[in-house]
Amino acid sequence: MLAKRIIPCLDVDHGRVKKGVNFVDLTDVGDPAEIAAAYEQQGADELVFLDITATNEARGAMVDTIEKVAAQVFMPLTVGGGIKSVAAMQALLKAGADKIALNSAAVTQPELIHAGAEKFGSQCIVVAIDVRWDEVAQEYRVYVNGGRQATELEAISWAKKVVALGAGELLVTSMDRDGTKSGYDLALYQALTAAVNVPIVASGGCGQLTDFTELFAETDVDAALAASVFHYGELTIPQVKTSLREQGVIVR
Amino acid sequence: MIVVVDYDTGNTRNLKKALDYLGIANQLSSDPATILAADGLILPGVGAFQKAMAALEERGLVTVLQTAAQQGKPILGICLGMQLLVETGYEFGAARGLGLLPGEVVPIPTATGLKVPHMGWNTNEVLQANPVADVFAGQATYFVHSFYVQTAAKNILAQTDYGVKIPSIIQQDNVMGMQFHPEKSGQVGLQGLARFNKELVLA
After folding, report:
1. pLDDT for A174-217, tens place per residue?
2. Quick one: A22 exposed, middle or buried, by C-beta within 10 A (0-12, 13-18, 19+)?
3. Total tally of structural domains belonging to chain B
4. What SS3 state is found at B40?
5. Where are the transmembrane segments (chain B) (predicted)?
6. CATH class of A5-246
7. What is the ipTM metric for this complex?
8. Given an 8 Å threshold on Cβ–Cβ distance, is A74 in contact with B185?
9. Is A11 a catalytic residue?
10. How far apart are CA A246 and CA B163, in angstroms?
């Protein structure tokens, strides 16, 4: 049966990986292709590259980065961050990306989801959703611009809408849990998997092995994304997979 | 020299990158003479069946590929490229395939409750020993598809389980298909491509 995926996420700025990655002894820790190759060797199932470059002028660097990574690393690559047009999607796919993640642009121009899905297929279009629990409204709310700006959108209905528009996968980050290492937001993913029938990637909150086993035991998500626990070597991908396997979760 | 048939589909350049990485001489081409002069062909493909057949037809490549197959040239179809090898597809209405292998392309049933597309890493079970298929025995490879091939058991070298048994590697004589993406399946995928080159193209 289909394996649950473990996905490291790399923040890329001007063609360099920004956050420290110290699980391998690399002399050049900022080189995306080297870091991608090291993660491939560890058994990562897919890689997400998030372009955190602040200026539009430097965005072309991401295409070069993906071009270099795809020449050396042969696994699915997802690219997100600041993508606002079908032309930008095409350039990244041509460079070797397999999927494009849309976040803020999906909110400001939802028609972009449909246009991308129509041209490249739904399997190419991931919608990334950053959510935070709203105590007053008692619902999950969608945030944009790197989580800095609230929207009026309720997360579960937004998820349904983007799937109807053609999104083939959702990458959903719990801002409440992100960076807390207190575990994934299980209630959020239970609600999402009940609402839509596309693969869901959970993100935000993992700090220990049991967070992964709990996520796959308690929810129907397809993948877990993590950044810092892998970058700083607190957990390794083989450790995570061994622990999942022991709990009867199918992994590669 | 392997020619990767270039008809404006998604994964063409990633296949070239994988072959380059392996040091296998290759080129992308849609030129009939170049295709007919190749030692082996790879037919990539991402997208929908009918549109892909139309794109091949537009470039005059349907008869070229049929001729190449009749000449005994090794041909490897990948993902949609594998689906195009058979006789008929049923994506957005019935359409003729290349007909290099018997069989048809049908939707993955949604009644199993499983998500479609079948997207991610799934394990291959080898049903018939074969130098190329053996590389993938018990190994997970990366699949992305909503339709699958149904063909005679004698043509199925390997299968994967997704509620239904999905043929993952098929073969008849010089024509082979892989439903997964070897160019996106890590080291095992690269080994499979290298083995295809060694056992079918260089042999």
Report:
1. 999 998 899 999 999 999 999 999 999 999 999 999 999 999 99
2. exposed
3. 1
4. strand
5. none
6. alpha beta
7. 0.91
8. yes
9. yes
10. 23
